[in-house]
UniProtKB/TrEMBL annotation, chains A, B:
<comment type="similarity">
    <text>Belongs to the aspartate/glutamate racemases family.</text>
</comment>
<protein>
    <submittedName>
        <fullName>Aspartate racemase</fullName>
    </submittedName>
</protein>
<dbReference type="InterPro" id="IPR015942">
    <property type="entry name" value="Asp/Glu/hydantoin_racemase"/>
</dbReference>
<dbReference type="InterPro" id="IPR001920">
    <property type="entry name" value="Asp/Glu_race"/>
</dbReference>
<dbReference type="Pfam" id="PF01177">
    <property type="entry name" value="Asp_Glu_race"/>
</dbReference>
<dbReference type="GO" id="GO:0047661">
    <property type="term" value="F:amino-acid racemase activity"/>
</dbReference>
<dbReference type="InterPro" id="IPR004380">
    <property type="entry name" value="Asp_race"/>
</dbReference>
<keyword id="KW-0413">Isomerase</keyword>
Amino acid sequence: MTTSTRTEIIGILGGMGPAATADFYAKLVATTPGTSDQDHLRTVIWSDPTIPDRTEALLGDGPDPTPWLLDGSRVLREAGATVIAIPCNTAHAFVPRIADHIGLPIVHMIGEVARHLTTLSPRIRTAGLLATTGTVRAGLYQEWLDRFGIRLVLPDAGNQDHEVMTAIHAVKAGTYDDTTTALLTRAARRLTEQGAQAVVAGCTEIPLGLPADAVDVPLVDPALVLAQALVRRATAENTAA
Amino acid sequence: MTTSTRTEIIGILGGMGPAATADFYAKLVATTPGTSDQDHLRTVIWSDPTIPDRTEALLGDGPDPTPWLLDGSRVLREAGATVIAIPCNTAHAFVPRIADHIGLPIVHMIGEVARHLTTLSPRIRTAGLLATTGTVRAGLYQEWLDRFGIRLVLPDAGNQDHEVMTAIHAVKAGTYDDTTTALLTRAARRLTEQGAQAVVAGCTEIPLGLPADAVDVPLVDPALVLAQALVRRATAENTAA
């Protein structure tokens, strides 16, 4: 397998937030098998942190980010991208508004996470979710887990606000520390107490503040699942060529 | 300072290697002051790991990467980039071949490192360099340090090969471990024994294998210096606007 026969160019629609985009690209590189630079996938990243806040838009408090997402997708397509990945859970609420207009397939991070949960052993019947209030309200995970018959448990409204969103804002501000980890650990443990056999770190900022060993059940990192799906896709394409 | 008044779009010509590009973007994000996504700089990254090996080209053993660098720069310009950064020391040997053709300013990483060395206290009269054989042979640091009256010390040919290049290849292969760190630490200490008052980690892979506290003198990370130069430039532009 050498890259010279690969035609896939990964397009990353990022900046939501920028640290999560950097983290996602590092995961994509680490997930790609290979021993030299030339084994890796060509990638183009449009990282636009000025995209209006997705949660605020979903709660009716801010501008619709759809035009920014369309612009970024156009930049990626013109740069030669053959597939789009969006390493931001909340932004997936806007995928139905852009999917038919960008002329490229999107590897759907939340769909990939739902599929990934079905591959875990023992079989996951209940999963917990730590995500932005926007992602929760938009029902993004609810919709996909329903399709696979997995029950979803969530923090109550108070903890969603005081624990999860506080931690996410700390990561976005670059001020996260042990307090952030403690908040997220407590929120995750409440989910396992409600029966969650796995916890989805459903905002790309969360894995930056919550180490995998902080909870007793598998902590699923959607960015890593998305990276693995992209590598599988590029490899399969290569084999087929 | 809000991003809405910023017109700078950072173009990163990357993939050399891809892990170093991810690391550089993470440093750019971490260096940018701000508390929300929207305070960060719009960035477009072209990460093409298929760019032929720069050291091999400089040693006459491989194809000239210049056409790939020109292609990548064109992608970045068409995507709206207003400035180009190249987070690969060795690739700077090809900057004179592309600079006049890409229609955008390049913030020169090696020039920025030389300038940065003159700001350290006590004043640096001798600096050591850990870099690829390509960077060393092309005389990139020699040329810039000469301009600022700083003497350059280098590993001897055997250690350059057996310590430095072995470690760089391990990082590129994703197989670096304590042995890699030991190799680089030994190489860095030899430079300080020759009088180096600072050591330049002059290949973007090196800081991934050599922690800053492994040497007794300042370890200068060109990727971080480049990130800081880009942030200063974007901020100054914003103030002037």
